[in-house]
Amino acid sequence: MAAWTAAVRQAANVARLSSTKSASIAQATTLVHRRGLAGGGDHHGPPKVNFWQDPMNPSKWKEEHFVIVSLTGWGLLFFGGYKYFTRGKEDSKEESDTFSQKDDGAA
């Protein structure tokens, strides 16, 4: 079935491209690219705004701004948790270094 469909498409393209010169003008109009669902047409729903214009209402933010703010928030959460749970290990090493320096000076 797929081979048959491909053959029909190829035959249609060859027939369309091998038409006369006057038909090439009509052909050019059929080859014009249409944007389809590329946006820029009818907007549905409320207009999207920058996140700094309405910071308390994420449903109105532009999609890319929502992604940036969300990823930044998650990054801060993970980094803060990492710093919180690893802070005791760094302090104990520093304390042991200060005790060893005091012992070296006394000897």
Automatic annotation (TrEMBL):
Membrane spanning stretches: 65-85
- Which domain of life does the protein's organism represent? Eukaryota
Keywords of this protein's UniProt record, alphabetized? Membrane, Transmembrane, Transmembrane helix
Q: What protein name is recorded for this chain? A: Uncharacterized protein
> Which species does this protein come from?
Rhamnella rubrinervis
